[in-house]
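Tokens help. Consider this.
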Amino acid sequence: MRYQKTLLLFAISLVAAGVNAATPRNEPIKPIAPAVITEPEKVELGKKLFFDPRLSMSGIISCNTCHNLSLGGTDNLKTSIGHKWQAGPVNSPTVFNSSLSIAQFWDGRAANLKEQAAGPIQAEVEMAMPHTLAVDVIKSIPGYVEIMQQVYGTPEVNLDRITDAIAAFEETLVTPNSRFDQWLMGDDSAITAKELAGYQLFKNSGCVACHNGEALGGTSFQKMGLVAPYESSSPAEGRFAVTGKDKDRFIIMILEVEKLFSFCDINSSVIFYDLAVRNP
């Protein structure tokens, strides 16, 4: 119901902006709804924390280091680099539209953005900052104490509030009103004939069985290596690391296609996408 209301407001905003009003299309991919910000002060606090390298032991790594908002919400590296230049076992998923996923991390070990935000701070291969020390550092900064008072009603600084604020900021990092979203809302002129042909092939080839919903993915877990044995030098084994069940080995969360900003150019088809369909 909340999504439907937000989408209605989105449609109204498109009309107000001069976008052709039309009947939304019934597609397996849905338009991304704009973020609804009800606590702007908390969002601003989360933004400050997201960019603050003082949450890392080295004092040089922030959330934005691996989820760089100027690089599509990731670092564009094969595997991310963390504390003491250690290479992690996997790459960093984009933070854009991550709030639309059913879980966080490739193996889904975090249920939501708040839970996810706590992980990298303490992880030895990432920011390597013990949670207690991270809290003490933020507590030592008067500006943060003042904002905690404004947002939460008391000046107390704790991990729960730090991760809650970061999650609130990350929830605003959605990408609505792309040309493809406008097409989904019924605007026939929003995408080109080539892009439409690419989408039809994408859909008719069965890609939408996994890459669906608002973000073209993030709605299910699937097994790597269904067609051919999965081979990798990475020690990561997907959901197996979470459940310990052999049947979950190499099962990962489905990638949100819109996260692949260079997915196109393979042919007219495979991706109606990099054509900036999702990116205005």
Notes: The first strand starts at residue 221 and ends at 223. Confidence is low (pLDDT under 50) at residues 259-280. The two ends are 27 Å apart (CA to CA).
